[in-house]
Design a protein that fits this description.
single chain, about 450 residues, 18 helices
Length: about 450
């Protein structure tokens, strides 16, 4: 920090956070309006969302005409793919890796990228693609950081800090998790390191973005509150959840990149236009949902539960509104749905699906333990397993356990879960070792190369 004064760092954080907060508002509103039009009005799906009250969440209903999911998914993927292919190919896939690549590269992001990423991701998520809004928000906000760096003529080091705090500002805003967003900016850059000099401006950026976003969307936790509680005798079960989370995280990483490899190989072999790859992925995803819908009422819930971010069904799990069999299947189908959506080249994030996968895994384990040991694991403990599953799975696959821990606790307003959460995410992170969902992370500041180089 010797070559950049603290006031200058704070100014960078403030400006980047302000722009990121405004961008997050428009992005969030775009997804809400698009989902209302495509999923509710056209598909006839009364879908659950995060933050609903128990009564509102319980009133959700699947679409009556399930086959309509297929053309909506395919058309959304086609439009999104054409926009990316035509205007900014670097907006393909999940946005966090693109932001990390820019940070570790020349620190420059084309001015059009944040806008292309926003529009294409809105279309992907609104049409039901299994993707998150946090990864795109990270790339959008990092892009704004790069634009401000151009305007302010920042040094290369300051430019990279602007990109890093853009990631924190955007994610902290849209998650309503300013503390976690700030730590994420410093933690997610490296597998085994922490960028300390980004932390101070990242806090300013994340808090500013959160304040602006909250003015429009409120300051209540993203998932509201639920009736929950845990006891010390349950700690071994949370350790078990951490072990299972490592396995699920490994499956998530391998399925995602394995699917991406298959689509990339098919593109070269059969000369498939890049914008058609997401269409193929969406078509397969849609057919899977239709198949599940006709198998049984419970598999119908699994199918529609994989549309979009998955946050609405995490909310249902927090209210104990999902059957055990549904929770058991959801993590695996959600992983496949995300791999088909983003691994095929659609624009969206892997953050929200990863949290959803962890939440469903935790809910399945909590529900199963309640059935086996009702005296040890009461109904009020099941939401705790949901929350800690979110932390353990994505905290480990992202190699940002502290940031994800803080974010999820902020999103649920449940800081009293810190002890079992730390136990589970530590176990998952240790077992998962160097496997990561973000391939553009570098090993450390001294060893600034990717693990597989």
């Amino acid at each position: 920090m010797a070559d950049t004064s603290i006031p200058r760092l704070l100014l960078i954080g403030l400006l980047v956070g302000a722009v990121s907060g405004v961008g997050a508002v428009f992005f969030f509103k775009g997804i809400a309006l698009g989902s209302q039009f495509l999923l509710h009005n056209i598909l006839g799906y009364r879908y659950p969302t995060e933050g609903l009250s128990f009564a509102d969440a319980a009133s959700w209903a699947p679409p009556e005409t399930v086959w309509l999911i297929l053309p909506i998914l395919v058309l959304g993927a086609l439009v999104s793919g054409l926009i990316v292919w035509k205007f900014a190919p670097e907006a393909e896939g999940h946005g966090t890796d693109a932001a990390l690549k820019a940070y570790h590269g020349d620190g420059k992001i084309r001015w059009r990228v944040p806008f292309v990423k926003a529009l294409s991701s809105i279309i992907t998520i609104s049409s039901g693609g299994s993707a998150g809004c946090e990864g795109p928000t990270a790339q959008i906000s990092a892009g704004f950081g790069s634009i401000l760096a151009d305007i302010m003529k920042l040094s290369p080091r300051e430019r990279r800090i602007a990109i890093a705090v853009g990631i924190g500002g955007g994610v902290g805003a849209i998650f309503k998790a300013p503390l976690g967003g700030a730590v994420l900016a410093a933690e997610i850059l490296y597998l085994r390191d922490f960028k300390y000099d980004a932390l101070l401006p990242a806090f300013v950026s994340s808090l500013t973005g959160y304040a602006i976003f909250g003015l429009f969307e409120g300051f209540t936790p993203l998932f509201g509150t639920a009736d929950m509680g845990w006891t010390a005798v349950q700690l071994p079960f949370f350790l078990l959840l951490g072990i299972l989370s490592a396995g699920m995280g490994y499956l998530y990483i391998k399925t995602f990149y394995g699917t991406k490899t298959v689509f990339d190989a098919a593109e070269k072999k059969y000369r498939i236009p890049k914008f058609l790859k997401p269409v193929i992925g969406a078509g397969i995803f849609g057919l899977i949902i239709i198949l599940l819908a006709y198998l049984s009422p419970e598999t119908l819930i699994v199918g529609v539960g994989c549309l979009g971010t998955g946050y609405g069904f995490v909310q249902l799990a927090l209210y104990n509104l999902l059957p055990f069999t549904v929770l058991l299947l959801l993590p695996f189908v959600k992983i496949l749905a995300t791999a088909l959506t983003i691994g095929s080249g659609a624009s969206g994030g892997v953050f929200a699906p990863g949290l959803a996968v962890g939440g469903f895994l935790g809910g399945a384990l909590g529900s199963g333990l309640h059935l086996l040991f009702p005296e040890l694991v009461g109904v009020s403990a099941i939401p705790v397993f949901v929350i800690i599953g979110m932390i353990a799975v994505f905290g480990s696959v992202s190699h940002a356990p502290v940031a994800v821990l803080l974010m999820v606790l902020e999103m649920t307003g449940s800081f009293d879960l810190a002890i079992p959460a730390v136990l589970a995410v530590t176990a998952a992170a240790v077992l998962l070792k160097n496997h990561t969902i973000f391939q553009e992370q570098r090993i450390s500041r001294k060893n600034n190369r990717k693990l597989n180089e």
